[in-house]
Structures are given as structure tokens and as C-alpha cells.
Amino acid sequence: MNWLFLMLAGVVEIAFSQSIKPTQNFTKPLPTLLCFALAAGSVYLLTLAMRSVPVGTAYAVFTGIGAVGAISLGIVVNRDPVSAGRLAALALIVGGIVLARFTTSE
């Protein structure tokens, strides 16, 4: 169950990363409120996961999911450049997340 919390924390982290730009440097009240709520939600879910997942593993997986999601959305939504190097980096991060999951005991 704690790994589910960790995966959800990563998904909320992705949403948080995408909510930053619409705040326009935190000058827009509603987008800013949403941004802060997503940040708090992702950290809260992360703390739930840390009940049994080691802190280092949990944080690495959490940030890895956020990074993969943010880069992927950048490519798909914002038309960020795609290169073999970027795709290889994403594959390595995903591989690290999978490896951490299957080699960490709760």
C-alpha cells in the first residue's frame, strides 16, 4: 500500500510541476493556491509512503516519477525537443525506479 502512496505522490508531483507556470510568478491567486495545494498534497502522500519505504528510496522514486512526467509532458504538450539522449535519460530514470521498487523491502 505504501508503494501505491508513493506512485500517487509522484503523479501529484507531476501535476504540481505543471501548475507552477500558470501562477505567473505567484501573481495569480487561484493558480497559486492550486500550486501550493498540489505541492502539499504530493509531500503528504510522500510522508505516507515513508511509513515503510526507506526515506532515500522514497525520495528518489518520488523525484524520478516527477522528472519523467515533467519531461514527457514537456515533449508532448509544449513540443520540447526530443533527442536520443533525452529518451535514454528517461529510460534510465524509469529503469532506476523499477529497480528501486523490486530491490527494496518494506
Characterise the protein shown here.
The protein has four helices and no strands. The protein is flat. The mean pLDDT is 95. It has one domain (2-103). By secondary structure, the chain is mostly helical.
Topology:
Blueprint: H1 2-19, H2 29-49, H3 55-76, H4 84-103
Helix pairs in contact: 1-2, 1-3, 3-4
Condensed summary:
The protein contains four helices and no strands.
Task: Offer a few descriptive terms.
106 residues, mainly alpha, 76% helix, 0% strand, flat
Mean pLDDT: 95
Distance between the termini: 10 Å
- The radius of gyration is 15 Å
The global form is: flat
Q: Number of folding domains? A: 1
Q: How do the SSEs run, as a string of H and E?
A: HHHH
Q: From the helix content, strand content and strand pairing, which structural class follows?
A: mainly alpha
Unreliable spans: none
Q: What amount of the residues lies in strands?
A: under 5%
Largest sheet: none
Number of strands: 0
Number of helices: 4
Helix percentage: over 70%
